[in-house]
Design a protein that fits this description.
The chain contains 23 helices and ten strands. By secondary structure, it is α/β, with parallel strands linked by helices. A six-stranded parallel β-sheet has the order 1-10-7-4-2-3, with helices on both faces. Strands 8-5-6-9 form a four-stranded mixed β-sheet, sandwiched between helices.
């Protein structure tokens, strides 16, 4: 049977990352600094466990009644003067966006804070239509200059050195050589401000869709996103259908939780609620506000009674920060828009289960991810449910299935477990598991006597 190319790429990227200690160090450095900040920010909650329970409960309620909440949100959003376009998948979303680009003769776009933008591959599609797109979040802009895709939901990919930033600005944007950090910051700020002022359209993500008021909530560090929604004439918002919260008042819970877990801040410096296009008498804001509501595989996650809880995710990225696998291999290894534990749960359903099932196995099942999730998603259990789904649906090779049968038989037979001697058992383990176990770790070995046998001998002596 041919090896799945996604799995092959994943293992080869993982091997490269593991053999690149410099890169690992930069990932771990960024994550460790971040973890300290998160722990400090979380001190603001007098009862953190209650806050997490409430946040999880409210999102889960919305996910379980999504049809009702989506309609309520749409009605309110339309009443506020916005337009809604529903897209079943990435192709449909890109087709609709292409029509908007054509109708408005768009040639320049600015974007900010949108994972969905990456998910649907909008960058390439806009490039094909001749539209220049500039990222406006400074860290993401530097990554864009370096040709790197985002590899973490909450934080920048890695910390670029001062020299790297200065070289990128010099080579790509003809900035003077060897800029110091303040000069590099000033140069970038001016460059982005010019791009925002000249853009025909802004393409943004959102953090929450507020059902009871038809509003869009965004949160950010720098205020660039606020500028992108204030100046261009058209604003396009990309949102998954799972981003709803019931009411405006719930933001007093979600905003501090997200700021703490995502950025290590008690509250983000810039929080905005967009309630429709610019109204008469207002001096800023888009003339047209269009929301693209995207399914793109989310309803397949929704169909799964257990795994649907992963749709309550608020994209803070905390589960990736603490995941030993993510720390070792880094976000790029996953080869997907959503990485880390939650990405490993939802991606197989959102894309193609058989092709991406290996992600559910890229976990030690240590449960650290569950312990930090602000909405209490039992991630490691959901990964086990994914593995179970994979086997039940026959997404295993005949060899794997044979091995599972043998192991099940051996592990459930008292006679085999108590068989004296470990030589034959260790030999069978080595020939059946050596290849899949890999070369970086020692194969497990069986003790010469089973526990049951030792107990009987002790009792008889
Ligand atoms: S699953 Fe939980 S911890 Fe992970 S990104 Fe989503 S909300 Fe954050």
């Amino acid at each position: 049977m041919a090896i799945n190319p996604e799995y092959k790429d994943f293992t080869s990227r993982a091997a490269q990352a593991i053999n690149n200690p410099g890169k690992q160090e930069s990932v771990v450095l960024a994550l460790n600094q971040h973890e300290t900040a998160i722990n400090n920010a979380l001190k603001q909650f007098s009862k953190l466990s209650v806050a997490r329970q409430k946040a999880g409960y409210l999102k889960y309620k919305v996910i379980n009644e999504l049809d009702r909440y989506l309609i309520e949100f749409e009605d309110n959003f339309l009443a506020n003067g916005g337009k809604v376009i529903w897209a079943r998948d990435a192709a449909e979303a890109k087709l609709e966006i292409k029509k908007i680009i054509k109708n408005h003769q768009v040639t320049k776009a600015v974007r900010s804070k949108s994972m969905v933008f990456e998910e649907i591959g909008l960058g390439q599609s806009l490039k094909n239509s001749g539209v220049e797109v500039v990222e406006t979040d400074t860290a993401d802009f530097i990554a864009q200059l370096a040709g790197e895709k985002p590899s973490h939901m909450g934080t920048p990919n890695r910390i670029f050195t001062q020299q790297e930033v200065s070289d990128l600005l010099h080579v790509k944007l003809s900035a003077p050589e060897n800029l110091n950090p303040d000069a590099a910051k000033e140069f970038t700020k001016n460059y982005l401000q010019q791009k925002i002022a000249a853009a025909d359209i802004s393409i943004t993500g959102c953090n929450f869709l507020i059902s009871d008021m038809g509003g869009i909530a965004t949160t950010e560090n720098e205020g660039n996103s606020l500028a992108t929604i204030s100046l261009p004439k058209i604003q396009l918002v990309l949102a998954g259908i799972d981003m709803l919260i019931p009411a405006l008042e719930n933001l007093d819970l979600y905003w501090p939780l997200l700021a703490s877990y995502q950025m290590g801040k008690t509250i983000s410096p810039f929080n905005s609620i967009i309630t429709g296009p610019r109204k008469e008498g207002e001096f800023s804001g888009p003339e047209e506000l269009i929301l693209i509501l995207i399914d793109n595989g989310r309803s397949k996650v929704l169909e799964m009674q257990k795994q649907r809880q992963a749709l309550t995710c608020i994209s803070c990225g905390a589960c990736a920060n603490v995941c030993p696998v993510y720390k070792l291999v880094g976000g790029e290894t996953y080869g997907t828009t959503y990485q880390g534990p939650v990405g490993a749960v939802v991606t197989p359903f959102m894309k193609d289960f058989e092709t991406y099932k290996h992600l559910s196995y890229a976990s030690t099942l240590c449960g650290k991810c569950d312990s930090v999730c602000p909405v209490n998603i039992p991630l490691h259990n959901l990964l086990l449910y994914n593995r179970n789904y994979s086997i039940k649906n026959g997404f295993v090779t005949p060899g794997e299935s044979r091995k599972i049968r043998w192991i099940t038989k051996a592990m459930t037979s008292r006679k085999i477990l108590d068989m004296p001697g470990s030589g034959l058992k260790n030999f069978l383990i080595s020939i059946s598991m050596k290849k899949s176990w890999g070369t970086q770790r020692a194969l497990p070995t069986v003790a010469p006597k089973s526990f049951n046998r030792q107990l009987k001998e002790n009792n008889n002596s």
